[in-house]
Amino acid sequence: MGKDGESIPDEEWERFLREAEAGTKDTPEEPSARARMVARRLREETGRQEPWRSHQPARRQGGKVWYAVGLLVVAALLVVALDPGRVAGWFGGGGGGGGGGGGGESAPLAAESERPDQPPPTEAAAQRPTMEQPFRGSPAAHWGDGMAGIGLPEARATGWMSKGQVAQALEKTRDFLAASSLDPGVLRGERPRKAIALINPHQQDVQDYLATAFRAPSRENDPLLLFSRFEKTKIRLVGDVVKTRGRITYREGKRGAVEVTTDVTYVYPVVRAAAGSDEVARTIVRREVVMSWDDPAKVVIEPGTFSLVSYKVDTTNGGCATFTGYLTPEFSAERAGTRPGDGPDVDPYDRSTSLETRMREAGDAGCGTATRS
Question: According to the model, what pLDDT value does residue 352 have?
């Protein structure tokens, strides 16, 4: 399939059908190139317009197939226009942020096992982050450090996998989260090679996206949909800790696959890269990634890799409609000259609402306003 979404030529399709009907030995069970990229809108089902990247699978003859899955790509351009008048109210009280200069004063919260029923509380006192306490005044001060903040369910036999295989799939899922959103080199803008190596190389539309995203990032092909990256010549992280809160769940998916859903909020404290910079800002990224650990007897896939089903992202202070391939946080000087966004007010720490619900409520509005950072 070409990048413009066109199907393979009709004569090739007709040849495939003839060979399939004749039982030609080398005929594939399903030609993945026949799966077409189609433009769809979330409004068809939910009333909200968002871009879809999806395949229309060809007819299946049974047996082994090329994985052609509807691939949802939703980039929420929300909560990134920061209202200067609210800056003082962003930073509630509370302790520091744990390791890496966080200076935490209390034990971190237990890992999230289910969706909370309300957002974390807001403290009354205004406390700004510092180089020594980059999570000061933020709910993230009480979150876990890195992978410690992401809840992992108990493994059980599911679909085609035994209990032990499910445990391995969950560990590799954690490996992907670490390699895509926590790896120090990737955060400095390096290519996320370890994370990419875990994605099914036979899922061609995803491979096309990955090839384009780092070369010519755009709304459609934005590496930030899956990976967290800052341009090291402009931005550097404070300390070596990224605060996280989220969970991993799984169920049996199509063709007996184990479908794993990750919903994680990452909090990155940053300063300008220029020597002597000490104004700390925070970029907050929430991602939901759904992956399918497929049965290799039914799907063409390399061992130890997964097929992407969907991915959504919601970013605060990471750039609004700036498709550079890097998160681009603003500091006080930029915020002073930035008008409030025309989207809704959003609490980026509120995990009581699903990303899908948050996007529906936002409608077609542009950049929203974060109520805290």
Answer: 94
Pairing label, strands 36-38, 144-145: unpaired
Enter the tokens of residue 162. Answer: 């035994």
- Please state, in angstroms and as integers, the Cα–Cα distance from residue 368 to each residue in 57, 111, 251, 280, 326, following that order: 36, 29, 34, 21, 19
Task: Determine contact, residues 114/247, Cβ cutoff 8 Å.
Answer: yes
pLDDT band at residue 361 using 50, 70 and 90 as cut-offs: confident
How many CB atoms sit inside 10 A of residue 193's CB? Answer: 11
Q: Please, is 315 exposed, middle or buried when counting C-beta atoms within 10 Å of its C-beta (0-12, 13-18, 19+)?
A: buried
- Residue 255 and residue 180: Cα distance in Å, rounded? 27
- Round to whole Å and give the CA distance between 23 and 12: 16
What is the DSSP annotation of 332-373? Answer: HHHHHTPPPPSS-EE-TT--SS-HHHHHHHHTT----EES--
Alpha carbons 229 and 370: distance in angstroms, whole number: 21
Distance in angstroms (rounded) separating the CA atoms of residues 76 and 79: 9
Give the Cα separation of 46 and 356 in Å (integer): 9
Three-state SS for 99-144 is: CCCCCCCCCCCCCCCCCCCCCCCCCCCCCCCCCCCCCCCCHHHHCE
Q: What length does the chain have? A: 373
Please choose, from the candidates 288, 287, 273, 276, the residue with its C-alpha nearest in 3D space to the C-alpha of residue 329: 273
- For residue range 67-81, list pLDDT tens digits in order: 344 455 554 444 433
- What pLDDT shows up at residue 11? 55
Using CA atoms, how far apart are residues 192 and 206, in angstroms rounded to an integer? 14
Q: Is residue 309 within 8 Å of 291, Cβ to Cβ?
A: yes
Which residues make beta-bridge pairs with 151?
Answer: 247
Over its C-alpha atoms, the chain yields an Rg (Å, rounded) of 22
- Give the pLDDT band of residue 240 (cuts 50, 70, 90): very high
Taking residues 104-124, what's their average pLDDT?
79
| Domain residue spans of the chain | 72-370
